[in-house]
């Protein structure tokens, strides 16, 4: 374990420069491998088969989409009414859902129907926008998120922040190189990523979260926001919980977690590493879990939920570090 003064990324570096270095370094530690590990065993064959429905998609792209849509939760339901593991709106399911398992029932809540239906729907979107200029995969994903008409209207990914972030995230997750077969993330890192993904959508609660899961927080943030009535996570509560599921005990605060971790160079970053923000090691104020391609899972701030965030979401990215397992230098 290194002392907290061993900062790998200089404070003077901008977040954009740091993220660019991390993404470049991630080529040898791809999120594609992490996604493969993160796909629940019961869905791997479904994803592999459905991911070859048409040339425009792949198993890894489909896995990335399902990770973003629901975190592979077949019971997921959004506030807008999207349903199931692939988050189909009822009208979209009615028009595009298929009875893939042949049981006589098109069931949006059944992954055996919903996953192949998502692949078929992606393929239909690719066909809809095949003549639109620009990146074909980006246009297909934008059509899946915002509709084919929007992509056709704007001759590419429409200027909607939500859709642009959606395309960036899924593309970066899906298109990482597969590497040379070397291990890019350990079982503990994959377990922590899975645990964090399972909490997507949980509310932010100042002081909330522990090794057992979401909890009521405390009072009060510097702006006076209280977590005493909110069951959820703050940033370090989420990372503490995620790594507790992997058998690694982290301290409570983000600064303490950095001190208990091993800083890594940008070229050595891998999924599962922790991403820290602050003007100095002593002033670290935020932490997330890196998932690859310049993205992380974090509990951002009061009023928001656990989500995927770009690593340049804050300008003071200071370091990426790897939690130290008991009696070990690495996880």
Short summary of the structure?
This protein has 331 residues and is α+β, with helices and mostly antiparallel strands.
Please tell me the CATH architecture of the largest domain by its name: Alpha-Beta Complex
Beta-strand content bin: 5-15%
- The CATH C-level class name of the largest domain: Alpha Beta
Give the beta-strand count.
8
Distance between the termini: 12 Å
Structure description:
- Helices cover 38% and strands 10% of the residues.
- It folds into two domains: 15-21 and 182-323, endopeptidase fold (from Nostoc punctiforme); 32-174, Lysozyme (Orthogonal Bundle), CATH 1.10.530.10.
- The protein has 331 residues and is of the alpha+beta class.
- 49% of the residues are buried.
- The strands form two sheets. A six-stranded antiparallel beta sheet has the order 3-8-4-5-6-7, with helices on both faces. Strands 1-2 form a two-stranded antiparallel sheet.
Features:
331 residues; alpha+beta; endopeptidase fold (from Nostoc punctiforme); Lysozyme; six-stranded antiparallel β-sheet; two-stranded antiparallel sheet; disordered N terminus; disordered C terminus
């Amino acid at each position: 374990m290194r002392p907290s003064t061993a900062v790998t990324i200089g404070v003077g570096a901008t977040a954009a420069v740091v993220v660019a270095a991390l993404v470049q370094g991630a080529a040898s530690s791809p999120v594609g491998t992490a996604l493969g590990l993160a796909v629940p065993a019961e869905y791997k064959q479904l994803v592999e088969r459905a991911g070859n429905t048409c040339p425009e998609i792949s198993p890894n792209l489909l896995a990335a989409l399902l990770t973003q849509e629901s975190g592979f939760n077949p019971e997921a339901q959004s506030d807008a009414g999207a349903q199931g593991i692939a988050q189909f709106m009822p009208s979209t399911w009615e028009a595009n859902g298929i009875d893939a398992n042949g049981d006589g029932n098109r069931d949006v809540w059944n992954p055996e129907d919903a996953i192949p239906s998502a692949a078929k729907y992606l393929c239909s979107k690719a066909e809809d926008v095949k003549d639109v200029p620009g990146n074909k995969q980006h246009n297909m994903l934008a059509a899946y998120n915002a509709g084919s008409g929007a992509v056709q209207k704007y001759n590419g990914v429409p200027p909607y922040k939500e859709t642009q972030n959606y395309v960036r995230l899924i593309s970066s997750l899906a298109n990482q190189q597969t590497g040379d077969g070397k291990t890019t993330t350990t079982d503990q890192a994959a377990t922590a990523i899975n645990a964090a993904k399972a909490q997507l959508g949980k509310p932010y609660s100042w002081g909330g979260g522990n090794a057992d899961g979401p909890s009521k927080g405390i009072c009060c943030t510097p702006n006076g926001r209280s977590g005493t009535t909110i069951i959820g996570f703050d940033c370090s509560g989420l990372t503490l919980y995620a790594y507790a599921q992997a058998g690694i005990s982290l301290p409570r605060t983000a600064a303490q977690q950095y001190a208990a971790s091993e800083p890594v160079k940008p070229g050595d970053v891998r999924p599962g590493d922790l991403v820290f923000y602050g003007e100095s090691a002593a002033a670290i104020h935020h932490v997330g879990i890196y998932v690859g391609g310049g993205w992380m899972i974090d509990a951002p701030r009061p009023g928001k939920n656990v989500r995927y965030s770009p690593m340049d979401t804050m300008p003071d990215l200071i370091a990426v570090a790897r939690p130290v397992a008991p009696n070990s230098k690495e996880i």
